[in-house]
TrEMBL record:
The keyword Membrane does not apply. CDD domains: AdoMet_MTases. It comes from Streptomyces ficellus. One of its GO terms (molecular function) is methyltransferase activity. It comes from the Bacteria. This is Class I SAM-dependent methyltransferase.
Length: 447
């Protein structure tokens, strides 16, 4: 076991076919790799056992959540360097796929054509130590069965992510309690200012006026509902599947003296039947809908709007694949963060809205804004780490730390994006109600 870091670095490079872009510090205290690079700390051989049984992203994540892997140095830099080794356009990178096949073949005592690859895989198995593989960390979602996106399954998925304590979310999100991309005027502005600006932007795009009926789909902790009612005089119905969110939002509404204008429901959006509404906001909710239900989602929201009604769909997107049928959901996100969540290219989103009957009037890409938002959330979590662990668990905090930092890098590198799509249920006479120069949102915000 002497100099485990050098052995591990050599084996990894042989299996992946590229030089490692990070340093390795092994459980024996040894180090190897490029000087000055972030350090990937392998605290225990169990991390290797996880990797040889689940090569690729899931094995790495399990080791991270269990505290067997860590990063010393700039986490964002480390994630950026490592991303290309294990991930490429929605699937495993060629090197990671080749390494995984070699390890699985060695486990099954089958030879690999490349003798060097075979020898590296066998050596990694010996270095990893005795079987069996460790069980997954308790934060991992158990394997789900049955059809995707039934009401019961969606409720369980939402509960896993959102019902982990309002105090925990408050620590990360800050006083605004807005869990979606903020809208920044300046990079050094405050998170609360940027979230308020985002809510103002949405209200302006929806052209909200006093007395308008607004449906806020996936209302979270009530931030949009309160903002629209308090600052614009809208009558708001907010729906969420999270009981903890609803309890917080109702208390917040009462504290603002807005109970006559805002109703918060624990309700599936598919069960909302009390249209017509003048406007609908869907902010960071459509990612939970899934491709098998997205057309149903678009159709239902269209039916809930009156003629001339507007929809603002704020949604994370992914880059399109040449072979969409081969696209796979990110295992880390699916197992630990958003069970059953799916991202779609923005073109598919607008096509579904148009198929429902909407006229798409504006699409604004704001992915750089989400990178800034996530970095603020990460800073909040790092500053309050001890309290966050007390409120949840060390494993849950490690999940969130990795998820938010990795997403920040993904937005910065244009691996994923976020878009606000404004769509109108244009009446038969073609009068959309849109101004001739529609991009006056910021002018209206400043008045």
């Amino acid at each position: 076991m002497a100099d485990a870091a050098s052995r591990l670095t050599t084996l990894a490079e042989d299996l992946l076919g590229v030089e490692l872009p990070v340093r390795i510090r092994a459980w024996d205290g040894s180090e190897a790799g490029p000087p000055g690079a972030p350090v990937l700390v392998v605290r225990h051989r169990r991390a290797l056992r996880r990797l040889v049984w689940r090569p690729g992203e899931l094995g790495l994540v399990r080791a991270w959540v269990a505290g067997e892997l860590d990063v010393e140095g700039d986490l964002y830099d480390a994630l950026d360097r490592l991303a290309g080794l294990v991930w490429e356009r929605g699937a495993g990178s060629p090197g990671a796929v080749r390494a995984a096949r070699a390890v699985r073949a060695a486990q099954a005592l089958r030879a690999v054509r490349d003798p060097r690859l075979h020898a590296a895989a066998r050596s990694l198995l010996r270095l990893a130590g005795p079987w069996p593989p460790p069980p997954p960390p308790v934060e991992e979602v158990r394997r789900r069965t049955g059809p995707l996106h039934t009401r019961r399954r969606d409720r369980a998925a939402i509960s896993h992510h959102y019902d982990v304590g309002n105090d925990f979310y408050g620590l990360i999100l800050g006083p605004s309690m807005v869990y979606s991309c903020a809208y920044w005027d300046e990079e050094d502005g405050t998170l609360e200012e940027a979230q308020s600006a985002k809510l103002d932007l949405i209200c302006a795009k929806l052209a909200l006026a006093e007395g308008d009926r607004l449906l806020d789909v996936g209302c979270g902790w009530g931030s949009m509902a309160v903002h629209a009612a308090r600052d614009y005089g809208a009558r708001v119905v907010g729906v969420t599947l999270s009981t903890e969110q609803a309890a917080y939002a109702r208390k917040r509404v009462a504290g603002e003296g807005l109970t006559d204008l805002v109703e918060i429901r624990v309700q599936d959006y598919r069960d909302v039947r009390d249209g017509p509404y003048d406007a609908i906001s869907s902010i960071g909710m459509a990612e939970h809908v899934g491709r098998v239900r997205f057309q149903e989602y678009a159709d239902h929201l269209y039916a809930l709007l009156g003629p001339g009604g507007r929809l603002l769909n704020h949604q994370i997107s992914r880059r399109p694949e040449k072979n969409e049928a081969a696209y796979h959901v990110d295992e880390f996100i699916d197992r630990y963060v958003f069970p059953d969540g799916e991202l779609a290219p923005v073109g598919r989103t607008t096509a579904a809205l148009e198929d429902a009957g909407f006229e798409v009037r504006d699409v604004e890409a704001i992915r750089e804004h989400y990178a800034l938002t996530l970095r603020r959330w990460v800073a909040n979590l790092e500053a309050g780490r001890s309290e966050a662990e007390r409120l949840t668990s060390p494993g849950r905090v490690r999940v969130w730390h990795l998820y938010m930092a990795a997403c920040a890098v993904a937005f910065e590198r244009n691996r994923i994006g976020v878009n606000q799509v404004l769509a109108v249920r244009t009446p038969g006479d073609g009068a959309s109600g849109m101004p001739l120069r529609p991009r006056t949102w910021n002018e209206r915000r400043e008045r």
